[in-house]
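Good morning,

Attaching, inline, the backbone tokens for the sequence recovery test we're adding to the shared suite. The designed sequence is right after.
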């Protein structure tokens, strides 16, 4: 039964977390509005993974078969030296602890499926809009929008990502909660020359990594350039030209396809760059406002679990709002259930596999090459432990389906 005290919900961000939350809240009978600053759902993006407990969420949404149909099935990551000579390769899913039901698919495909799943309900979408101000008045939250409109909602949920504006308004600046993992990265589309298919090719030197990732035999691939930064660097420029200049300086003189990647990086209009960071907060809620997904507990792409955390967190948050008497009780129950799961997944970003793909030192590279040699001789058995798979399935989903 939906509690009258928190029937209307405003979700900031049509993200994976936001769309999943909208689906379940609508299912439970809430009045749901999603505000999104973009003009439509974001359909682009790199490959993402739905694993472990998150697979149970999409199954309960009735979307598992559609998501499985979109499975990319990447095969190998190949490591090369500066001349392009192969150093070794690893089967992707053996390295990350994949199980049979886990799915890799384009991010845009998942967001489209989630969005379409809400279209048959009562979810109201407000595109080209965002929140300008929030004032919790006890019985509700007064929201000022960037177009000058004002409205009151019972509950506000920030599902607006790593750089959450909702979090900034309610909890303080991002710098208070962002934990740098010591790298920044550039991701951009490139024409696929056919040399890469169903996986990735990576060349790394201490403190800088370059790669190309291809989705099956798609004629377009993703270029990837990541480099080490000062972990105490608090401010990160969002200026694309400045980032390109900085990237060129860092990768100057590097071999393999790096000169080509640097040139191509400046051509597309889809360059995405950011720090490799986590969000770590002492609390995910304040009054009638709460955060979900990357806004609350971003694990960074090094964990490979951002999508799964978003799906699981949104499912639990919606369920607790449906069964608890007050928003505050619901938020406390949601955090009690999800925080141990999120923290366990965040640790995956700092285990040895992180240095495997983003080495900071020559020693990291030597260890990686030794592992590649062992795989070539004996296969992956005993190389990658089962801890990652255990973490993916760490949380047993509550069943709110009788609500």
């Amino acid at each position: 039964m939906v509690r009258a005290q928190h029937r209307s919900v405003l979700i900031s961000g049509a993200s994976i977390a936001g769309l999943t939350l909208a689906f379940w809240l609508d299912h439970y009978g809430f009045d749901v509005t999603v505000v999104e600053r973009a003009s439509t759902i974001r359909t682009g993006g790199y490959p993402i993974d739905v694993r472990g407990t998150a697979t149970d969420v999409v199954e309960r949404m009735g979307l598992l078969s559609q998501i499985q149909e979109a499975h990319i099935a990447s095969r190998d990551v190949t490591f090369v030296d500066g001349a392009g000579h192969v150093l070794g390769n690893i089967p992707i899913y053996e390295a990350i602890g994949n199980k049979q039901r886990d799915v890799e698919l384009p991010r845009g495909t998942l967001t489209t499926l989630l969005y379409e799943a809400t279209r048959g309900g009562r979810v109201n979408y407000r595109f080209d809009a965002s929140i300008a101000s929030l004032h919790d008045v006890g019985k509700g939250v007064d929201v000022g929008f960037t177009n000058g409109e004002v409205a009151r909602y019972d509950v506000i949920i920030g599902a607006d990502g790593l750089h959450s504006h909702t979090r900034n308004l309610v909890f303080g600046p991002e710098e208070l909660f962002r934990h740098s993992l010591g790298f920044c990265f550039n991701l951009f589309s490139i024409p696929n020359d056919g040399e890469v298919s169903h996986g990735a090719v990576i060349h790394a030197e201490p403190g800088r990594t370059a790669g190309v990732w291809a989705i099956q035999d798609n004629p377009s691939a993703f270029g990837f350039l990541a480099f080490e930064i000062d972990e105490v660097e608090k401010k990160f420029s969002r200026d694309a030209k400045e980032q390109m200049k900085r990237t060129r300086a860092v990768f100057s003189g590097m071999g393999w396809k790096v000169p080509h990647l640097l040139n191509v990086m400046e051509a597309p209009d889809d360059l995405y760059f950011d720090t490799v960071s986590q969000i770590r907060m002492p609390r995910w809620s304040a009054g009638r406002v709460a955060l979900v997904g990357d806004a609350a507990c971003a694990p960074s792409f090094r964990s490979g679990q951002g999508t799964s955390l978003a799906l699981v967190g949104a499912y639990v948050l919606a369920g607790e709002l449906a069964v608890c008497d007050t928003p505050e009780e619901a938020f406390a129950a949601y955090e009690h259930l999800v925080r141990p799961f999120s923290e366990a997944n965040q640790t995956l970003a700092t285990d040895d596999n992180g240095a495997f793909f983003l080495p900071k030192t020559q020693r990291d590279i030597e260890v990686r090459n030794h592992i590649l040699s062992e795989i070539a001789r004996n296969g992956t058995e005993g190389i990658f432990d089962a801890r990652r798979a255990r973490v993916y399935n760490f949380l047993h989903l509550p069943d709110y389906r009788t609500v």
